[in-house]
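Aim 2 progress. For AAA ATPase AAA+ lid domain-containing protein, the working sequence is reproduced below.
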Amino acid sequence: MGATNRPQELDQAALRRFSKRVYVALPGEETRFSLLRNLLEKHSSPLTQLELQQLARMTEGYSGSDLTSLAKDASLGPIRELHPEQVRNMEASEVRNICFRDFVESLMKIKRSVGAQTLELYARWNRDYGDTTSG
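Predicted structure tokens for this construct:
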């Protein structure tokens, strides 16, 4: 078993070693919604259903890993507003919860990691080599 973000760079000898090759596409809007909801469960689900739906639309082209990075960055939003001495002397329960604005600000920094050109390479590779079985 193996996984790669660059299947097009594997040579034919390496590809022959795998009896099954599966292309996993980027998550659609519904899956992004579910991933974001699951990521935020440990923060007491601070976003409304409507905000989660909007965020899922705003993250078109984001991978699961990109969404995790986005949520981690957004979770630091409340801390970034504080002065260092406040952080040292404040109880965790006193820090405000994550809000939609934190995600909007994080979207300016955390971009999708897979570009359109790379997606086209993956799709072409999948047409030529993916989803095969031997025997």
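The mean pLDDT is 84. This observation will guide construct design in the next reporting period.
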